[in-house]
Amino acid sequence: MNCDIADIADFIEDNDGFAVYFHKNPDGDAVGSAYALVLALKAMKKEACAVCADEVPEGYRFMTDKVGSVPFRARHGIAVDTSAPYRLGEYENVKMAVVIDHHESNSFDAKYKYVLPESSSCSEIVYSLIREMGVPISSLMADLLYTGIITDTARFCSRSVNRDTFRAAYELSALGADTVSLGRRFTYEKDSKRLAVEKRLLEHMSITHGGLVAVTYLSHGDFEELSVTPDDTEGINEVIDRIKGVGIGVLVRERIEGKCRISVRTSAKYNADRFCALFGGGGHRYSGGCQTDGSAEEIAERLSEAAGEFIDKQDSL
């Protein structure tokens, strides 16, 4: 059950020594919400750091390197943009005092838990919390939070976008977010390696079930041949999002041989969270993910069949 966001602000005011945790394979929303909160805590003269099982992707380091987050033995854990303990990787057993998230399937147990599934990004929630904390928003905080919003909403094109999304973006712009540069960086600008990745995904693309299912993959061999890093596949779901009429879109990444990370996007008619739950994952109404063992090609084939069966079952209800 949710506490009030004011309760979290009061807890932070009365305590010190915070580690802000965010999920492994971090995306822009996880990075943006975590590092903006760390900056806000530091502005309150609190000791704080950001912690993740994986390194911050290179594409966000131009902001995070300015935060000066040095790990220490913290007294209180805060989890942001993370739906379940296992998503923290090696930190899954850390007891969290505070959980801030927007995943409906959030399974954390914490005294101060604030989950808002209707929010299009965790960064929006953290923005509200920072205002509740009474901390002035710096231009770097604004950049981080705006990055979280635009990356988690596919540049305001996801179905989770609502008026609160635009209100937060407008206010962050007024507070100094470099909306033009950030928009170009995370929308248009692509290097030759990213273009090669998109080309390979299109080559592997399978569109079935009357155009309702689109599945593609990057195999372990593709990662090695193209010298691909996680940075090169950040937000790569846009390759599927561009296909008109798709009900369930699936992207499989096999960076480690035999270990596949799966991202799912759905139309308004089909629930991504429920589909991913069939494979031990979860997420949001329109986006989700899971992990499984096997080769990318065989997993892609299996999920293509499963997506078709899921659509048939939902359509028959």
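Second entry:
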Amino acid sequence: MNQSTNTVNWDGMAAAWTLALIRLSTMLAFSPFFSSRAIAPRTKALLSVALCWLLVPTVASAAGSGQAAVELSFPGALGEIAMGAVYGLTLGLFNEMLLLAGQIVGLQFSFSLVNLLDPASEIQTPLMGDLFQMFGTLVLIAAGLDRVLLSSVARSFHVVPPGGFRFASMSAVAGTIVPMLSGSFLAAIELAAPVLAATLLVEVSVAMLGKLSPQLPVISLTVPMKTLTGLVVLIGSLAVWPRFLEARFSALIDVAQRLMFQAARV
């Protein structure tokens, strides 16, 4: 009797660990800086397995707290994929905010034709967009928010145990994520606002100078003046970047956790 009981427990533990690995791997595939294609796929796989191994006590307690035994099934695996995708895509809005802000600033710098291959998405992105994403990644790592992200993922197993995701909650999850897209757009505008204001003042000043002195070659002065003024303002605004980016990333983590609570209550 004891041997059969131990076998059933080990089977449930293996199923819970497999479902946790699916959730964590999907989350890492979509979340910021972990999803970068600059990281080798083997490194990501080893990181997922290592994190799941470290989370074995958490997964075991979460699986043991459920009313029914954890079973490895196709619907359960799909639920874990959906959970990891929702979590990763919610945090992925952070990168989209930085990319959009970089595109706006690059347009004001007259860098709209300077494109690079983004290793994260494998598409051509503006130069300033890649620069903003690298700045954002440095801020998150320096602030220790990568560890906050991993601790939030660990808490998710207590909120939604392995195999406990319910697809009936997807409508509520979608209703929360869609309005966040407009919030990401507004955050990008706020991040690029100092450069936008400075370059707008330069354009107005050059236009007025051209009206007062038509003989001056103001057209040839517009681009270098906008670029130099924008760079000075951008360097000065970097002082407020850590607090701004930390607040936005923390808000996204809170939203991801709230979505998990919604998935657990349905």
